[in-house]
Design a protein that fits this description.
19% of the residues lie in helices and 32% in strands. By secondary structure, it is of the alpha+beta class. It is globular.
C-alpha cells in the first residue's frame, strides 16, 4: 500500500505478512493444485524430464519456461481457505531491499554502512556495497551505491525498492560486447569471464574439492588450461594425467575431455578459449549421447 495507508494500518494494529509459512508439503501441493493446476502440471513435467549432471539436477527447460512468474503469496496464500495468521515476534526482518539492508548493517558515526571496500568523506546515511572495486564517496547523503564486476547502481536510499524497474530494462538496453565479470555457479564450483575479444575468451575456473566436470567436447573452439593452484586430473582423449601449479595442457577442438579436482584444496586455473565460435552452447556431453562418446576410443570413466 501507499505510505499513508501503510501508516494507518500499522497504527491500527494490523499484522504484516512476514513471508514465513509453516505447512506440510502435501498440503501446499494440494492448495497449488486447486489454485493453479497449470503451474503444477508444468512443474511436474519439468521435474519428470530433469537430468542429473555434475552433481546437480537440471529441470527440463521448455516445460519450466511455461510456468508463469508469480509469488507464493499471490498464487496460493491469497486464495487458500486453510490459512491462519498468528502474531510472531522474534527479531525477524525481511531484508528484501537496499534500504532494509542499510537498516540492519553496522553503521559509522555518520550513519554510513559499508560492505566491501570504500572511502567516504563528508557523506552521511549511505549504503556502500562493493565486491571488487574500491568505491569513493564525497559529499553525498542518503544514497545506495552497489558495485559489482559488471554494473554499478546509484540510487537514493528511499528509492531502493524500485531497482526492479531498472532490471526490467537491462535485456533491451544492454550495450557493448564486454562480458559480464560475474561468477557463474555450477555444481562443481564456479567460473567468471576475465576477457573477451574476436576469436578468444579468457576465464577463471574454481573447482571445489571433489568437483568434476562432465566428459565433453567442443566443435568450434580449443581450450588451453593453466593451473594456478591445486591439483588437476585431466582426461583428454583416451589418456588421463595430473597437472600441478604452473603446468598447462591444450585441449583441441573436437577432443573429448574432462577436468577434475584431484587434491585436497580448491583447484583454480585459467582457461583460454580460441576458435570461431565461443558460445556456452557449443558443448556435447557424454551424458547427452545414447551410448557414450564415439571418438578417440574414450569411454565414460566409472564413478
Amino acid at each position: 500500500p501507499a505510505q499513508p495507508e501503510l501508516s494507518r494500518l500499522i497504527a491500527e494494529g494490523w499484522l504484516w505478512n512476514s513471508g514465513i509459512f509453516v505447512m506440510r508439503a502435501g498440503t501446499l501441493l494440494e492448495e497449488m493444485e486447486r489454485a493453479d493446476p497449470d503451474m503444477v502440471r508444468n512443474c511436474r513435467a519439468a521435474l519428470d524430464a530433469a537430468r542429473k549432471r555434475e552433481g546437480g539436477l537440471y529441470l527440463q527447460r521448455s516445460a519450466y519456461s511455461r510456468c508463469r512468474s508469480i509469488s507464493l503469496d499471490h498464487a496460493v496464500m491469497e486464495r487458500t481457505r486453510k490459512a491462519v495468521v498468528v502474531p510472531f515476534k522474534a527479531g525477524w526482518k525481511d531484508v528484501g531491499s537496499w534500504p532494509a539492508l542499510w537498516e540492519i548493517s553496522s553503521q559509522d558515526a555518520q550513519g554510513n554502512a559499508v560492505i566491501g571496500d570504500a572511502i567516504l568523506e563528508e557523506s552521511r546515511n549511505c549504503l556502500i556495497h562493493s565486491r571488487d572495486a574500491l568505491v569513493g564517496a564525497l559529499g553525498v547523503e542518503d544514497l545506495v551505491i552497489a558495485a559489482t564486476a559488471d554494473a554499478i547502481l546509484v540510487s537514493r536510499r528511499d528509492q531502493g525498492h524500485r531497482v526492479g524497474e531498472l532490471l526490467s530494462k537491462l535485456p533491451r538496453e544492454r550495450r557493448g560486447n564486454q562480458p559480464p565479470r560475474v561468477r557463474i555457479c555450477r555444481p562443481w564450483g564456479w567460473f567468471e569471464t576475465l576477457g573477451l575479444g574476436p576469436g578468444f575468451q579468457v576465464k577463471r575456473l574454481h573447482v571445489k574439492v571433489g568437483g568434476r566436470l562432465s566428459l565433453q567436447r567442443h566443435e568450434h573452439r580449443s581450450e588451453h588450461w593453466v593451473v594456478l593452484s591445486g591439483a588437476a586430473r585431466v582426461t583428454r582423449g583416451s589418456h588421463t594425467r595430473k597437472l600441478g601449479e604452473k603446468e598447462s595442457i591444450l585441449i583441441a577442438a573436437g577432443e573429448w575431455h574432462r577436468l577434475e579436482n584431484a587434491g585436497s584444496e580448491p583447484l583454480e586455473l585459467i582457461e583460454i578459449q580460441t576458435g570461431s565460435y565461443l558460445g556456452e552452447d557449443d558443448i556435447r556431453r557424454c551424458d547427452d549421447l545414447p551410448s557414450g562418446p564415439q571418438a578417440g576410443g574414450v569411454q565414460e570413466p566409472e564413478g
